[in-house]
Amino acid sequence: MARLSKGRKKVEIVKMKNESNMQVTFSKRRAGLFKKASELCTLCGAEIATVVFSPGKANKVYSFGHPSVELLVDRFLGRDLPSPNDDDRYNHLIRAHRNTGQRGLNKEVMDMQESLHKEKAIGKSLLESGREAYDRLSLSQLEQLKEALEAQKRKVEFEAKLQQMGSDAPLPFLTFGSALSSTSGDGASSSHGPNVGAPFPN
């Protein structure tokens, strides 16, 4: 039976009471805010200064600015800046280069966070769809799936033991090769070791 969608609900914007949830939301929204500011600078050539203080007792300060936060704050406050000389121009170029590198790193971090969120969403969707697929299986189908998974588990454990023994170490005289291939009609028994190529019992 198809699930009935309740539609998109409007989330009420109120201050969170849970401290942990508040910090997680602040971290995500801050990254999104700085990303939008960076895109506005790149697309429109705007000069932006953004200062954010974290909630809670930590009260850390985070900032993003183009070309720099200090320059834009001084301009906003109407401070009289000294006339630039050669040293000031050189220092300004250094700060601009540093800010450019910082913006690039910020963009990489934001892109990685966005990719991580997308991967988590995809994984959650696959998990939910997998649960729905299992719900549609009958009891006999579930038992067959269980047997297949157990057979695969035995095969992996067997191959892991072989790898632990070492590929160069001589195999001892084993007689259980015929037991592994006994379920196959055309499988020949071997007295020199396990019949690795033989199919495992389901």
Automatic annotation (TrEMBL):
Checking SUPFAM superfamilies in the record gives: SRF-like
Any one Gene Ontology cellular component term annotated for this protein: nucleus
Q: Name all MADS-box domain ranges.
A: 6-54
Query: Which biological process, per GO, is one annotated for this protein?
Result: positive regulation of transcription by RNA polymerase II
- Record-linked InterPro entries: MEF2-like_N, TF_MADSbox, TF_MADSbox_sf
Q: Point to the regions of Low complexity compositional bias.
A: 177-193
Q: Does the keyword Heme apply?
A: no
Task: Give the SMART domains listed for this entry.
Answer: MADS (SM00432)
Q: Which PROSITE patterns match?
A: MADS_BOX_2
- Alphabetized UniProt keyword annotations: DNA-binding, Nucleus, Transcription, Transcription regulation
A Pfam family annotated for this chain is SRF-TF
PANTHER family attached here?
Answer: AGAMOUS-LIKE MADS-BOX PROTEIN AGL62 (PTHR11945:SF769), MADS BOX PROTEIN (PTHR11945)
Can you say what this protein is called?
Answer: MADS-box domain-containing protein
Task: Give the organism the record lists.
Answer: Capsicum baccatum
- What is the taxonomic lineage of the source species? Eukaryota, Viridiplantae, Streptophyta, Embryophyta, Tracheophyta
